[in-house]
Amino acid sequence: MLIGCPKEIKPQEFRVGLTxxxxxxxxxxxxxxxxxxxAGAGAGFDDADYAAVGAQLADSAAEVFARAxxxxxxxxxxxxxxxxxxxxxxxFTYLHLAPDPDQTRDLLASGVTAIAYETVTDRxxxxxLLAPMSExxxxxxxxxxxxxxxxxxxxxxxxxxxxxxxxxxxxxxIGGGVVGTHAARVAAGMGADVTVLDMSLARLRYLDDVFSGxxxxxxxxxxxxxxxxxxxxMVIGAVLIPGAAAPKLISRTQLGQMKPGAVLVDVxxxxxxxxxxxxxxxxxxxxxxxxxIVHYCVANMPGAxxxxxxxxxxxxxxxxxxxxxxxxxxxxxxxxPHLLDGLNTHAGHLTYYAVGxxxxxxxxxxxxxxxx
Length: 372
Description:
This protein has 372 residues and is of the alpha/beta class. The chain has two domains: 2-119 and 306-369, Rossmann fold, CATH 3.40.50; 134-299, NAD(P)-binding Rossmann-like Domain (Rossmann fold, 3-Layer(aba) Sandwich), CATH 3.40.50. Helix content is 36%, strand content 16%. It has helices at residues 20-28, 47-52, 61-67, 79-82, 101-110, 131-148, 178-189, 201-211, 222-230, 252-255, 306-327, 329-335, 337-340, 353-359, 366-369; strands at residues 2-5, 32-36, 56-58, 70-72, 90-93, 113-116, 170-174, 193-198, 216-219, 234-237, 263-266, 287-290, 293-296, 343-346, 349-350. β7 (170-174), α7 and β8 (193-198) form a beta-alpha-beta unit. The chain starts with a strand and ends with a helix.
């Protein structure tokens, strides 16, 4: 199979879909790899690194899209990229379709077979291709939140760990999954006073046992959430419903009950955001204010640490990439129902239920799509 990797064009996206190591593995399986010149530069990989393992270098993204049988990316294809996709081609990347009707319509019109990293599952019910970026985003959230809290950025001017005689920042993490766990761990490590909210009592027990009181846990009832948010210096939104639009956990009305200059960090912004007042921002212009509350809603947070993120993502995606290339997507998905969970579109059909529900589009079951 000819595997293609274009340079990411989303603003301030420095990651790359294929590392030289992944390219070498694919080539060792008798596949060909074509990568756009300069695609790896943001993550610290030179063209020479790819050439050294036998990858072909393309002068343009157009050449990659025109020639490749499988396109491997990091972020969802932008409009100009979607226009170059075609039926019979395989797209393997993050998609986040539920809050993005334009992208969904374009993918369906192209006829491309699209497998989304974020909906591939594993035997434990986890999301193994989303997990590494959730870990990165979770660990970044307190860091960018601390920066946003600085007075020069519109924040309350509160130091995360305080100083002797002055209390630390009060941080609330909504969601105790992968993102929330890593966010709480880092925020507590910075000296903040941290509380994690989650609906699952089993998850709260797990966090309490594993982290031995490094942070508090509370059940995510409406009352508890409202109380804690009103007293928070920083709120980190870390709630995920796989493949679906994120639920809105804080309304605009609640902003008026928060401390002026408090910070909201919305890690769920790729799925539409979990605060009513959230809208996507970029690393170049990451924050904005609504009713005196600072919002940090960068839609590709892990891109800020592109090398770590690229390597971590490549480690996770490589086995699936090789399976798709070695067997073809149909056989690979027949052999692995967890990979089939990643199928979002095929031959003009939407194949992921949560996206169809969010956008009001009819869905063809993945099992039936395999037969087309």
